Amino acid sequence: MANRPVITFTTDFGTSDWFAGTMKGVVLRINPSATLVDITHGIPAGNIRAGAFALAASYRFFPKGTVHVALVDPGVGSQRRAIAVQTADYFFVGPDNGVLSWALRSEQVRATHSLENRAYVLLPISRTFHGRDIFAPVAAHLSRRTPIRNLGPPMRQIEPLAWPGPERVDGGVKGEIVHVDHFGNALTNLTERDLAGITGGPLRVQIHGKAVCVIAGSYDSVSRGNPVAVLGSSGFLEVAIRDGNAARRLRLRIGQPIVVKEPH
Amino acid sequence: MANRPVITFTTDFGTSDWFAGTMKGVVLRINPSATLVDITHGIPAGNIRAGAFALAASYRFFPKGTVHVALVDPGVGSQRRAIAVQTADYFFVGPDNGVLSWALRSEQVRATHSLENRAYVLLPISRTFHGRDIFAPVAAHLSRRTPIRNLGPPMRQIEPLAWPGPERVDGGVKGEIVHVDHFGNALTNLTERDLAGITGGPLRVQIHGKAVCVIAGSYDSVSRGNPVAVLGSSGFLEVAIRDGNAARRLRLRIGQPIVVKEPH
Amino acid sequence: MANRPVITFTTDFGTSDWFAGTMKGVVLRINPSATLVDITHGIPAGNIRAGAFALAASYRFFPKGTVHVALVDPGVGSQRRAIAVQTADYFFVGPDNGVLSWALRSEQVRATHSLENRAYVLLPISRTFHGRDIFAPVAAHLSRRTPIRNLGPPMRQIEPLAWPGPERVDGGVKGEIVHVDHFGNALTNLTERDLAGITGGPLRVQIHGKAVCVIAGSYDSVSRGNPVAVLGSSGFLEVAIRDGNAARRLRLRIGQPIVVKEPH
Q1: Do residue B42 and residue A16 have CB atoms under 8 angstroms apart?
Q2: H-state helical runs in chain B
Q3: Is B241 helix (H, G, I), strand (E, B) or coil?
Q4: ipTM entry
Q5: C or N: which end of chain C has fewer Cβ atoms within 10 Å?
């Protein structure tokens, strides 16, 4: 761990209230030398899958020892557990509702603990803001090298979140849109490996059964205003419009099926 | 004060321009070791009460010695004064228009000074951006332990901002909505103490004279999509819809009266 | 350069995805002691001029040695070059599409290099996220005092971006609106110097050929709800409405011509 350990935040808190700032105050009271980084506070309210995807797409670019806090927590105040997970390179802290699980798919989990030790949280715990009262202080303590086993009893398993697996179809593969970004690019669940079995010339992308574009090497393989699919920076196939907004123009939404086919 | 003193920002500057970033540049030129935290830049433009509420809800979670800058300043360039306040645990910096006053309600004020000493500001002072030219440099100097008395003449009193006090009504208490958060939860000015006098079973919340919900222990005391009132993390009663947006569904707005009554 | 060198970000990435956060992770892996400041991630998508203006308005308020990263890059993945520029006081990093050029108008350029040395970037370079793979790591290396000449071959010239120069007209000067800020104030390209030749009493501002307001010393020279033009904090004449939103009320847009005339 670095001398100035990093703590990241991925939440649906928005930035119009004091919620994210308050968590940082709590962290800095416990570890004044922490470096705090917002991944995003713009996850749609309560959308666990969107939070899981953002964390999975970004966590591995941070220094070893980083503590990642992911809070999309529609069940705050209910009986869902609060957990911390230690992997070979990182710590993850959040509710046990699947929001951590897509990031953990490619990590070696060393330990998982339920955050039940009241010595490491802010008392009294409020009913509605566990980010401030549980997750922020726990993240701060982990960044100070408090052993994860001190935080509460070990757990064997966490709540999984199903990853929408691609499916073989006649002459191609079928996936779905899993994220629409700020530029209107639609990210799918299809990776380079998923497309490897399909061969022969430029692959065609179909949405709603209609051919939309081909897969190319970069946005500027097509002229301005035209659709194109590329393997994006997160490793997934994404549908874009050069210098335009694909989601708006092509009416793309999370959950929509997408089919990649070989040429005729 | 910590070795890496914290400076926070609560403003109505938004994040689409360069305003918040520029203030941070000014601070770092004066104190390169400051830790900078955004509480929020999303206060509605010119809404002093919203800024005062956000600061009051968050400031006490920061380390002792933190310098809190609060800028909702529709009178920038006019004759309103710029002030710094030292309390037992914190510093507060902002325009003298009430934006600091709700936080100061629960602080022991040690000293208040008018920011008139031109040695601690950026010259020439622009007519429209005192955040950059006065408040950021003053906050940076305070974070370096410049004595507050150096900043300008002492003041006996600051501009107050009336706190909307709750009112006893027949069989209950009447308050109002003071904030609507990112999730659509409506925070009221009613605290646990305000409700203490009303007894006998689950308390009922009325808005527009109609019963809306009861007060419960947590969001999941009701089933999904149903309204509920809970004592929120800031210490105030808030009206929510489980896994939904109460402000939108129930048409809740800042300033609306709300009545809490005992059961029949 | 300070012990904790500053790196700033001015982008059109928005804050709803993980893009800005991921760049910071990449920086902190290379230079854990960097101080990271967002100028803004709210530049309209692909609007190079808006990014150039935000950077030019803010960069000089940061400590000497600051590395400024500006990313408005509709041509990512195409053949446009990636560059780093060293001036007397700062470093600038971004695509060679003009986004850096308005800031550089008032800087003494010492060296410009094309970012072609693959030893200082993240491999493999993705097709769509050079912020993460090229610009963030290069900024981090510059903040660690890697000599700029190590990054790639020197360049003689960068892509310019035309600054819309003001024009003399009968009895006045003609400029245009170059930015509309969060408060609805419309910034023009007219500076105090541009107005110096026009004399005799309060100058009148015309938009669409109609007199809109006079130029005054501060917002409160007029009563609430009335329009006024002032020399704003960035050094440019701006049109505002006291305690109101000028862009909305007067239908002001980027690119609109504005004329300043002497009184009759």
Answers
A1: yes
A2: 19-30, 48-58, 101-104, 130, 136-143, 192-195, 246-250
A3: strand
A4: 0.94
A5: C
